[in-house]
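The data are passed on as follows:
___
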Amino acid sequence: VEATATTNHNYTSCCIATNVSKGCLGFCNIQSILDGQTGQDPEKCEADFPAIVRCMADGRNHVPCCMDEGVPDICQDVCRGEYTMITDNIKTHFSCSAYTEKTLSCIVEGIEILPGQPRSVEVEGISDTSIKVSWIPPFTNAETITEYVVNVTMLRSFDANTDSISDSQNSSQYIITPHTVQITVKVSKGTNNAVVGNLVPFTMYEVTVTAKNIHGTSLPSNAIRSLTLTPGLSKPVNTAKPPKLPDIKACCVEQGITHKTCLEKLCNIPQSSLAEVTDLMICAPWSRQTFSCLANGMDHTPCCRARGL
C-alpha cells in the first residue's frame, strides 16, 4: 500500500474541533507528515497527539491492515485511533518509527473503504431483562455496510472501569451472577435498532455498536451505559398520542382572509418569521382574525410575558 497525494487524508477540521494546538495542525494531514512538512517538532505536540491520532483514524479500525503490513502489536495503537505516550523505557526497548509509513498508508486506504462509526447511539431499558439499542448510520460509507454488531457488556459495579472484584471491597456494590457477562447481537444492514434480552434485572450494562462491511469494520461507537429495570417492571409500550396541531391557514380562510401575503406569511407558522413590517401593514385589516387563529383559543399571556412583552 502506498500513500499518494491523490489519496491524502486531511483531518484538520476534526483537529480544530478537538482543540489541537494551532502549531500542531501540520500533523493533521497525512501528506504533510510523509513529506516532513508538519512545521513543528513532534515532541512539542506530544500532548495533542491523542486527539490528532483519534481524528486520523476517523472512527475506522485499521488494525487488520496494519497486521498484514507487519506492524508489531506494540505499534498498532495508532491503527485503532489511540496514542501511547512515549516513555524513556519504551524508547529503550522498541521504536515504532520504522513502521510509520506503513501505518499511515493503511489509514489512507482504510478511510476510503471502511465504514465510519455508528452515531447517536441510544440505550433504553424496556424491561427488567431487556434493553433497546438504537443508532444512526455513519456519515461515511454507510451504503457499504453489510451488518452492525451490538456488544452488550455487564459491568460488575456502578464504578467506572472496574475489572475485578476485590475481597476488601463492599460486596453489596457488586453483582455475582451465572449469566453471560457479554452478549453480541448482529443486525442486518438497513436496521438501526435492536432489542437485547436475557439480561439481569437492575444491572448496569455498557453498550457499543460497530459497523461492518466486506473490507472490515469501524471502531466501536462511544460506549453508552444503561440500567435494566427493577425486577418485575417493564416500560409501558402505549404512549399518549401527540396533540393535533391547529390548521392556522384553514382557520384564516374560514375567517374571510383572502390576501395571499397574509395567508402565506402570517397564517403559515413556518413562514411567519419572514414577515416584514410592510406585510403587517398590508394585513392590518385582518389582524383580529389572524391573531384569533394563531391563539387557537388559548391564553398565551404567560409566554408573552416570559419573552419580555
Observations:
- Confidence is low (pLDDT under 50) at residues 1-6, 162-178.
- The chain is about 25% helix and 15% strand.
- The beta strands are 119-125, 131-136, 147-154, 182-188, 193-196, 204-213, 216-217, 224-227.
- The two ends are 66 Å apart (CA to CA).
